[in-house]
């Protein structure tokens, strides 16, 4: 399949590309362009889905839909919640999404363990130095209690990977080491392939979810990643400084 070269950010184009490559296909959640038929199909196939603006960032406009009993659906956007009947679902979604191009994606069950279930994900920064893609750092993000997103702009807390894995996911040392190895492999496969769509860019960030069965999922690949709202906010600035150093060498 030919690789299309892109100049603007498109979550859908990236998901489509990665879902057709053997190295990355199994990490891409089921993703489609949002329209009435895909909404019907996806809400029947999955009990939770995310709607995201194709060119969105900072979790703006992200909506989650949960299928409930009695043919009802719960929609959540930021702190707002709305329950609607099946026959009102498309009309409600149309109203919330307006003219913006959206995608619909299978939800990943990315919750922490223990008493307090919180959503989390990983921000994984990668840079190209002398033609070789390297992982600059991985940072955990813990969502606010009750929130379905994790970015710091919406109450999420950037968290050291070690803390996330040990305290919030209860991984053993062996599980931690194994997960970090798997993550590094997935990140490099993803950015190497996305860089064929954006050959001039020398840094990307992959947003990754891990489900309760330790399966790795790629939510999106960011093409102009900032480190202020995540790595800079960690209690330990080692990774932040490391990425800044690597940026000076990257091209
Ligand atoms: N398929 C999904 N399953 C579970 N959570 C998701 C999914 N997609 C997105 N999210 C949550 O929403 C946040 C924003 O989604 P993302 O695709 O990264 O878009 P943005 O460009 O707004 O950052 C993610 O950081 C994650 O917390
Ligand atoms: Mg993101």
From TrEMBL:
Organism: Paenibacillus piri
Top-rank lineage group of the source organism: Bacteria
InterPro entries, per the entry: YheC/D
Lineage of producing organism: Bacteria, Bacillati, Bacillota, Bacilli, Bacillales
Name of this protein: YheC/YheD family protein
């Amino acid at each position: 399949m030919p690789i299309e070269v892109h100049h603007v950010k498109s979550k859908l184009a990236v998901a489509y590309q990665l879902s057709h490559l053997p190295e990355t296909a199994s990490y891409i959640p089921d993703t489609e362009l949002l329209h009435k038929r895909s909404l019907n199909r996806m809400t029947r196939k999955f009990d939770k889905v995310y709607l995201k603006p194709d060119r969105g960032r900072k979790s703006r406009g992200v909506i989650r839909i949960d299928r409930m009993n009695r043919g009802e659906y719960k929609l959540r956007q930021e702190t707002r919640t709305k329950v609607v009947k099946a026959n009102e679902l498309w009309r409600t979604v149309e109203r919330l999404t307006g003219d913006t191009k959206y995608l619909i994606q299978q939800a990943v069950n990315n919750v922490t363990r223990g008493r307090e279930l919180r959503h989390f994900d990983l921000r994984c920064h990668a840079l190209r130095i002398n033609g070789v893609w390297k992982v600059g750092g991985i940072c955990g993000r813990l969502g606010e209690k009750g929130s379905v997103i994790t970015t710091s702009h919406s109450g999420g807390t950037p968290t050291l990977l070690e803390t996330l894995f040990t305290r919030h996911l209860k991984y053993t040392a062996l599980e931690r080491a194994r997960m970090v190895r798997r993550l590094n492999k997935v990140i490099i496969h993803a950015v190497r392939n996305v860089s064929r769509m954006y050959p001039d860019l020398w840094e990307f960030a992959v947003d990754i979810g891990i489900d309760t069965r330790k399966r790795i999922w790629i939510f999106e690949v960011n093409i102009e990643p900032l480190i202020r709202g995540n790595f800079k906010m960690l209690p330990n600035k080692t990774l932040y400084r490391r990425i800044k150093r690597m940026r000076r060498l990257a091209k």
